[in-house]
Design a protein that fits this description.
Layout lengths: L1 E4 L5 E4 L30 H8 L4 H7 L20 E4 L2 E6 L2 E6 L2 E6 L11 H11 L8 H20 L8
Antiparallel strand pairs: 1-2, 3-4, 4-5, 5-6
C-alpha cells in the first residue's frame, strides 16, 4: 500500500495484493482486466495451481502475468482494479461501459466507447506511427516511463526504510 501526494495537492492511495484471496473483478461485475467476461469465484485457483506444482519452473512461468493468450476483442472496457476518484464535487469510478459519476445530482454513467485490442497490444505501434507520421507526442514517452520507474523505486525504498520518500520530479 502506498500514499502518493502530488504537487497540486492531489493524493492517491494505491493498494496491491497478490495473495489471490479476494478477486477485485467481483467489484467489476466479473469482468476481467482486459474487458472480457470472467468466470466468477475463481479466486485462489492460481495460488492452488502454483502450490500443487511448487517445484515446477515451467508451471510457474505458465501462471505468470503475460503468459496466457488473451482475446484482443473485448465486450467491455478494460480496467486495472477498483479505482475511485474522489473530487471536490463528486466521485467517479470505472464501470463496464464507461465512468460512473456520483454527485449531488445522484449517480449517472458516462459511456466510453470500447476500442479494438487490449492496452499494450498494438496500441504502442499505433502511437509510434502517430508520433512519426503525424507529429503527435506519445502519452507514454520516456519522461512518463522514467517517472513511473521512480515511483515504483520510491515505494520499494519506503517499504524497506519505513519512512516517507520524496521525489524530485
Amino acid at each position: 500500500m502506498a500514499l502518493l501526494e502530488f504537487e497540486n495537492d492531489a493524493a492517491a492511495s494505491v493498494i496491491f495484493s497478490s495473495y489471490d484471496f479476494f478477486d477485485s473483478d467481483e467489484l467489476h461485475h466479473w469482468i476481467a482486466e482486459g474487458g472480457a467476461n470472467k468466470e466468477p469465484h475463481r479466486h485462489g485457483k492460481t495460488r492452488e495451481a502454483f502450490l500443487a506444482r511448487a517445484e515446477d519452473l515451467e508451471a510457474h512461468e505458465a501462471l505468470a502475468f503475460g503468459a496466457r493468450v488473451l482475446p484482443t476483442e473485448q465486450p467491455y472496457l478494460p480496467h486495472f482494479g477498483f479505482i475511485v476518484v474522489t473530487c471536490e464535487r463528486g466521485d467517479m469510478r470505472l464501470s463496464p461501459n464507461g465512468i460512473r459519476i456520483h454527485d449531488i445530482r445522484g449517480t449517472r454513467e458516462v459511456a466510453v466507447p470500447c476500442g479494438p485490442g487490449r492496452p499494450g497490444h498494438g496500441d504502442a505501434l499505433d502511437a509510434l506511427w502517430e508520433a512519426i507520421r503525424a507529429g503527435r507526442r506519445c502519452i507514454n514517452d520516456a519522461r512518463w516511463g522514467r517517472a513511473t520507474v521512480e515511483v515504483i523505486l520510491a515505494i520499494l525504498e519506503s517499504s524497506k526504510s519505513r519512512r516517507e520518500v520524496r521525489l524530485s520530479c
